[in-house]
Every structure is written in C-alpha cells, then in structure tokens.
Design brief:
This protein is of the alpha/beta class and 275 residues long. 24% of the residues lie in helices and 19% in strands. The strands form 3 sheets. The chain has a 6-stranded mixed sheet with strand order 7-6-5-8-10-9. A two-stranded antiparallel ribbon has the order 1-2. A two-stranded antiparallel sheet has the order 3-4. Strand 5, helix 1 and strand 6 form a beta-alpha-beta unit. Helix 1 crosses helix 8. The two termini are 40 Å apart. The structure holds guanosine-5'-diphosphate, magnesium ion (MG) and zinc ion. Guanosine-5'-diphosphate binds next to helix 5.
C-alpha cells in the first residue's frame, strides 16, 4: 500500500519507490510505499479541461514507441511530430512503429523521418494471419530494439498497440478491440497503463486510450539541445531566435543537404510542440 501522505496519483508505472515494512510478500504482511524517487523523465496525459492538473502516465522510461497504422486509421504527421517533441524534450529515445502494413504501403509516410534518423519498424499482423498461421509472428527486430529497456507505447485507440504487445509477448495478455466498421475507430479496450515483462528482459508499457502526451510543459530549448550537431550554428542566431525567421543562422545551410533536412525536421517538431 501507499503512505497516505503521498496523496492520490502520486505513483505511476515506471516509478522507483522506497518501501517500508515487510517486503517478503508473505501472506498477511504489509509493505508501504513511503517515497517516490526523483524521476529522470515523465510522460503526462493531455488534459482537455483548462486548469486541470497534469496527469502523469509513466516515468523513467528509456524509449517512446510511437505507434501509427498504415491505414485504418490513417497515419498523421502531426501526431508523430508531437510525440517526437515530447521524446526530445524528455530525453527519451523515440521509435516509430507502423502497424497494419498489410493494408497500405507506409514508405511515403516514413520518408519524413529518414533525415531525423528515427528508428522505425513496419508490422503486419492481420487477424486472418494471426488466427490461421502456424508461423512465428514475433516481430523479431522490434523485440530486440525493446529488450533490456523500459519502453512506453503511445498511439490512438485502434492502431493495434495491444495486438503488437501480444505478438511481442507471444500470449494474449492484452485485450484487443475491433475497429468499428462504420467509424473506422477502435474501442477503448484497456483502462490503465500496464508494464509487461518482455521475453529476454525489459518492459513494455501499454497505455490506455491516451490520445497524446501533454505538451504544456515542453521546453523548446531542450528539444533543440537534442540536436547537438546544430549547436555551433545556433550560437550564431540572433537573440531569442525562433529558428523560423529570415535571420536564423540555420538558413545558411545549403538546401537539400542532409543537415538541411534535419533542420526541416527540427522545425516541424518545434511547430508541432507549439500547436
Ligand atoms: N489488418 C490488420 N489489422 C490489425 C493489425 N494489428 C491490429 N489489427 C486490428 O486492429 C484492431 C485494433 O487493435 P488493438 O490491438 O486492439 O488496438 P489498440 O487500441 O491500439 O490496442 C483489431 O481489430 C486488430 O485485429 C495489422 O497489422 N493488420
Ligand atoms: Mg489496446
Ligand atoms: Zn535560429
């Protein structure tokens, strides 16, 4: 149990805590969470109502797995860019996973993330294949990118997060939902964030219907400092440069060069963060 002084919502998945009492786990014993250790990073939920408190979803994670479907529902750059802003702000490595690659070719969509060197994976786990195939459906490359790390999944409801988790874990730990044929949207099938241990080590955190993580507390300068190779150039920017104005030193980079493409990516992410 949790010490009363800690208050409601004070402990989230991924937190490191100090325990007091009997931690043997034996029947009839009791241990208390008495302290939540400082978080190295945290993800909070977007709260729609103004003035509402920041609601934390997970903490101390190594990787943010951004899940979008190749189709049904359509992938959106705006969503991915906002997630990247959160990842760069919090110093969490982003990974992009495109599910339902059997329904559409996601290569054009992925092109936008090449210059940013975002690690990406395509997954294809249609129901017919899952139900009839005797073959091993384990997404091997993705699993090895997740092993030994704490990763949190983010994506709209219905994109196939729970299906993916079940494939990674090779069980049916997570309930999956059917996309409503009329609306193309999924049902909210999971109600709380869960950390599940991966085969070979590491943890995957499946989040409930979190549409996107909170952007309110994002610090532009932390995002920019994730692009270390641009630091020297940025020093030559005018004071308080928005990096989107004619005097910006980043404009001196020849158009079409790999660095220019990264700068475009950075500018897109900065724009998404202030949406
Ligand atoms: N065609 C296809 N359908 C998929 C794939 N992955 C998941 N689905 C379907 O998408 C729907 C939503 O999946 P679910 O895992 O519950 O999504 P979640 O809300 O993100 O957890 C289910 O009907 C799945 O069968 C895929 O790779 N291809
Ligand atoms: Mg789910
Ligand atoms: Zn600038």
């Amino acid at each position: 149990m949790k010490a009363r002084e800690l208050g409601k919502n004070s402990v989230v998945v991924g937190d490191l805590v100090r325990l007091d009492g009997d931690i043997s786990g034996a029947e009839g014993t009791l241990a208390r969470i008495v302290e939540v250790l400082p978080r190295s990073n945290s993800l909070s939920r977007t709260v729609d109502d103004i003035g509402a408190q920041e609601k934390f979803v997970a903490a101390n994670v190594d990787q943010l797995v951004i899940v979008v479907a190749a189709a049904n529902p359509e992938p959106r750059h705006g969503f991915v860019d906002r997630c990247l802003a959160v990842a760069f702000d919090q110093g969490i490595k982003p990974i992009l996973v495109i599910t339902k690659s059997d329904l559409a070719n996601p290569d054009d969509f992925l092109e936008a993330y090449k210059a940013l060197e975002i690690e990406s994976f395509k997954s294809s786990l249609p129901r017919e294949v899952r139900e009839n195939s005797q073959s091993n459906l384990l997404p091997v490359n993705l699993l090895s990118a997740l092993q030994g790390k704490k990763s949190v999944l983010i994506g709209h409801s219905g994109v196939g997060k729970s299906t993916l988790v079940n494939a990674l874990l090779q069980n049916n730990a997570r309930e999956t939902g059917d996309v409503n044929l009329a609306t193309g949207r999924g049902r909210h099938t999971s109600s709380s964030a869960h950390a599940l241990e991966l085969p070979g080590g590491g943890w995957i955190i499946d989040t409930p219907g979190v549409r996107s993580f909170g952007l309110e507390h994002i610090d532009r300068s932390r995002i920019i400092s994730s692009f270390g190779e641009l630091a020297e150039l940025i020093e030559r920017c005018p004071k308080n440069c928005s990096h989107n104005e004619s005097e910006c030193a980043l404009n001196s980079v020849p158009e079409g060069s790999p660095v220019a493409l990264r700068i475009n990516g950075l500018r897109r992410i900065l724009a998404a963060a202030s949406d």
